[in-house]
């Protein structure tokens, strides 16, 4: 599926704090914890639990959320399909939408029981 400017704008204006409980609910149904959710979000965005609470309390939009985030340098390693969108095929002009889908991919992997060390992608050491 193709991302449109309208779709990108719709996601940009969504309130992160209204979506966070949905992420958490899904994970808890699958035996995962709030701490694990926060760990994944912190790895991806750099936000610790206090920063997340502040963003939720401020009713920050996804636009603000991702503007303030320090996206992990290994985020490019997050690939695959989320909600019908292949992450690596989302155009650069829709960077916010791509980041949102990357974060959802990590949460999806967590919900499916993937091991944390696999979710938090690390570059393979290149042997010389």
Automatic annotation (TrEMBL):
InterPro entries: SP1917_dom_sf (IPR023204), UCP033199 (IPR014580)
Highest taxon of source: Bacteria
UniProt name for this protein: DUF2200 domain-containing protein
């Amino acid at each position: 599926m193709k991302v449109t400017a309208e779709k990108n704008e719709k996601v940009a204006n969504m309130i992160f704090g209204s979506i966070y409980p949905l992420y958490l609910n899904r994970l808890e149904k699958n035996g995962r914890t709030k701490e694990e959710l926060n760990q994944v979000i912190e790895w991806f965005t750099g936000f610790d639990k206090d920063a997340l609470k502040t963003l939720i309390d401020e009713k920050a939009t996804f636009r603000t959320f991702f503007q303030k985030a320090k996206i992990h340098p290994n985020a490019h390693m997050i690939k695959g399909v989320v909600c019908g969108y292949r992450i690596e095929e989302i155009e650069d002009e829709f960077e916010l939408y791509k980041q949102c889908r990357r974060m959802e991919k990590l949460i999806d992997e967590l919900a499916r029981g993937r091991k944390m060390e696999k979710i938090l992608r690390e570059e393979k050491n290149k042997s010389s």
